[in-house]
TrEMBL record:
This is D-3-phosphoglycerate dehydrogenase. One of its GO terms (molecular function) is phosphoglycerate dehydrogenase activity. One of its GO terms (biological process) is L-serine biosynthetic process. Keywords: Acetylation, Amino-acid biosynthesis, NAD, Oxidoreductase, Phosphoprotein, Serine biosynthesis. Homotetramer. It is an enzyme of class 1 (oxidoreductase). Residues 11-325 form the D-isomer specific 2-hydroxyacid dehydrogenase catalytic domain. It comes from Xylaria flabelliformis. Residues 456-465 have a biased composition (Basic and acidic residues). Pathway: Amino-acid biosynthesis; L-serine biosynthesis; L-serine from 3-phospho-D-glycerate: step 1/3. Residues 450-470 are annotated as: Disordered. Residues 337-430 form the D-3-phosphoglycerate dehydrogenase ASB domain. It catalyses: (2R)-3-phosphoglycerate + NAD(+) = 3-phosphooxypyruvate + NADH + H(+). Residues 113-293 form the D-isomer specific 2-hydroxyacid dehydrogenase NAD-binding domain.
Amino acid sequence: MAGTIPHKPRILVPEKVSQDGLALLSGEYEVDSRPQGVSPEELLTLISDVDALIVRSETKVTAEVLRAGSRLRVVARAGVGVDNIDVEAATAGGIIVVNSPAGNILAAAEHTVALLLATARNVGRADRITKAGRWERGKLVGVEVGRKTLGIVGLGKVGMKVARMCIGLGMKVIAFDPYANPDLVRQTGVERLVPRLVDMLPEVDFLTIHTPLLASTLDLIGAAEFSLMKPTARVLNVARGGVYNEAALLDALNNGVIAGAGLDVFTKEPPEQNTPAWELVHHEKVISTPHLGASTVEAQENVAVDVCTQVAAVLRGELPTSAVNAPLILPEEYRALKPYAKLIERMGGLYTQHFASPTTPAGIGGRHFELVYHGDLAGVSSSRPLLAALVRGLVSPFSDTGGRHVNIVNATAVAREKGIVIRETHAHSGSATGGEVYASSVTLRALAVPEGTESQQDRDKKDGGDAGSQVIEGYVSGNTAYISRLDRFEASFSPEGTLLILHNHDEPGKIGGVGSVLGRHGVNIRFMQVASLAKRPKSLENGRSEVVVLGARDDTQAMRASSLEEGVKKNGNEALMILGIDGDVGKEVIEDLRTAEGILNVSLVRL
Ligand SMILES: NC(=O)C1=CN([C@@H]2O[C@H](COP(=O)(O)OP(=O)(O)OC[C@H]3O[C@@H](n4cnc5c(N)ncnc54)[C@H](O)[C@@H]3O)[C@@H](O)[C@H]2O)C=CC1
Ligand SMILES: O=C(O)C(=O)COP(=O)(O)O
């Protein structure tokens, strides 16, 4: 309308974010910076007329906040973890979420080392005692870290830096990360990548965790895990509160199960009175800091410049560099592939959670996959979105962003970082789904691992040599994705929502037993299906094949034939039970199912 003055876009910053970044915005935009913080109620009011929101870890960006932000175009996290932002709701509302995935990594790693040494040498307690006027050297004798063993859980960006620093301090470093790239880990000087968390616990003098907080890492270390550790062991947390179960950690310290802890993060920040977190902060054997991992001048400058540059880009209508919820598929170009991209993404997520969860030994890092397209799909000229969909699905269960940061531009880089190699085969032999014919179907095959990949070989040995290859097949019908084969079993279910997959002896009474365990826990079953051993061979004749995503190396020799048929011959008496569940299920349910008679294995899959 003539005479209307366009408003200057407004940016709300309800936390302390470095001026080095905000200065980049202040000329062109109206920046409302509130370094003292705002209450949740104030946020709901303030958000109504802003175009961009820049936060750190203290602001909870809930679905309600996002709905109230009717003009909101971008939410920027000046840091790594986006667990305080409802990314799903932002995506649904068309709001871009960006973060700074690398700006504070050095700071977080250095803070971990600071807590390691402070815990070893009682620095916090010594300071308090000395300030109180006491000179009590005899009570403050510490331990050395050199020549000691450090266990790292989560060898991502921070974990790797901590590993390098601690090797520099003369420590022996071992690690657990089923998704890490074994080649990269070896080059770093980490002595061993263990196949199971419990394998390293009795050995470590110090334990540090660097995973995101996810459903699969919540309470990863509890009473059972602490009980395996040395009474002299000390634990560190500069990742997220809740990966160590706080009540179990408190008990372990009170009962001398372990010797000490250095904690930067808590389930509720600041911790509330009369909670385990509160008691941990005040515990004699704990040194605690108020989420200071990223609080250095340099890190704050890095993350602020990084996200403010991205906010300006989004407000100008350009693409940000680190979108947490970037679209996988561009709308027009890939319309026809969209349902298959969804299918393949779900197959990737199913693979990781069914075959490669922390309690199963197959692993993701350094693994070779084959995607076989059958039917019409075999003729597609550009399958880049399908490859990106697979990478997104494979990494989503263990990444902070639920894999939503993976897109067709960066999928190759993400795969390379994890050592994942994907080979594509365009099969000409029609459908792979038995006698029935579907327009197109897809086979995902995880192949045996290249010679010399020690950690994977260890995993394979532990699994009786069968962890080498697994198969998932699927198809799309009426825009709905279906899984038609899960390893040795023929199935037909839609990979949606929460699934429980039970591997069991195929004997009468199993269904009733499982039903009664779930009934006891009040778990609602949406659907249930029994998948029997497949009878048909899984040949993939007449295909043309090309390696498209580059990973650690292209070792065609290593692409050994699957052991599926041998497996069928060996075990005639097995089935899979696939249950669709309403809501979520807790660890106790899984444990009860695992110990039920005739159940060989249980996996929880969230898609
Ligand atoms: N205290 C602080 O101020 C800071 C905390 N952080 C937090 O540190 C954590 C790690 O950050 P980055 O290294 O940047 O993340 P990253 O994504 O680079 O690495 C995470 C690693 O954890 C592994 N992982 C996931 N699930 C696992 C499981 N169940 N068992 C073993 N390993 C598992 C992944 O494979 C990955 O290698 C995040 O939670 C982040 O928010 C980061 C910076 C500052
Ligand atoms: O970047 C992260 O994940 C952090 O935990 C840092 O949090 P902060 O920005 O210091 O509130």
